[in-house]
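quick q for whoever's on today - can somebody do inverse folding on this one?? i tried earlier but teh output was garbage lol. tokens:
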């Protein structure tokens, strides 16, 4: 099996594991934790609901590939096999999904927050998927810069680097624990409406800060592609939280 085939077989395996775990956790949330009358349903009919889901999915997939591939193309030698390397990123997927969702809601005059419909799936799928990033090591290009810190990890190339995948997994665990805790508090309704936006602020703030110790392209004002898309996403999250107070 070639270098590239081995990489993709591992990535697909962990991605599928992430989707499966996300499905069961999401099912548990909607059946055991969230009551039916708490779930947003601003759609005129079932077809409009599926139309919305499909548009969000298409937007997420498109921008996941475009942003990651563009960033990689800006880095000389990014693809060890030569040429432009097609890739995908969760930050790009979130960006594209949010832009698609808000565009659809704007033209259909929908003001109800719908992020809770996606939140468990995103958090769990991303958490499991980061195991795949660790397993593929240097090839995945999600590691950090070399470090002398005692928690540095060797991603199969003999260099100790910041384990940024582990940092991200720690953030996801912390957020999910806080989210679940507040669902059993007096602020349950507020978190159902705003939990997704809190996640957007936390995750993209993390992506902006962690970008300074990751080997991505820094082609404009010393910022990477991911840092540049993180800034409007943080502003978006804060704006939506403010609107829902």
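ok took a stab at it. sequence:
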């Amino acid at each position: 099996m070639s270098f590239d085939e081995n990489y993709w077989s591992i990535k697909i395996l962990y991605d599928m594991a992430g989707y499966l775990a996300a499905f069961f956790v999401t099912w548990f949330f909607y059946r055991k934790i969230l009551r039916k009358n708490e779930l947003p349903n601003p759609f005129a009919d079932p077809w409009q609901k599926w139309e919305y889901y499909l548009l969000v999915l298409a937007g997420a997939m498109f921008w996941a590939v475009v942003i990651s591939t563009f960033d990689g193309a800006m880095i000389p030698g990014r693809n060890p096999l030569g040429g432009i390397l097609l890739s995908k990123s969760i930050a790009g997927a979130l960006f594209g999904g949010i832009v698609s969702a808000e565009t659809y809601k704007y033209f259909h005059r929908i003001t109800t927050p719908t992020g809770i419909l996606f939140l468990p799936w995103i958090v769990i799928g991303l958490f499991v998927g980061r195991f795949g990033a660790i397993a593929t090591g240097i090839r995945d290009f999600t590691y950090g810069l070399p470090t002398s810190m005692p928690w540095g990890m060797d991603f199969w190339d003999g260099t100790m680097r910041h384990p940024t995948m582990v940092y991200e997994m720690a953030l996801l665990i912390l957020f999910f624990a806080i989210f679940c805790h507040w669902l059993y508090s007096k602020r349950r309704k507020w978190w159902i409406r705003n939990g997704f936006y809190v996640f957007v602020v936390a995750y993209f703030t993390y992506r902006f800060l962690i970008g300074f110790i990751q080997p991505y392209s820094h082609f404009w004002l010393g910022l990477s592609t991911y840092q540049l898309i993180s800034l409007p996403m943080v502003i978006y999250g804060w704006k939506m939280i403010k609107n829902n107070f």
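fwiw The chain has a mean pLDDT of 87. also The radius of gyration is 19 Å. so keep that in mind when u check it
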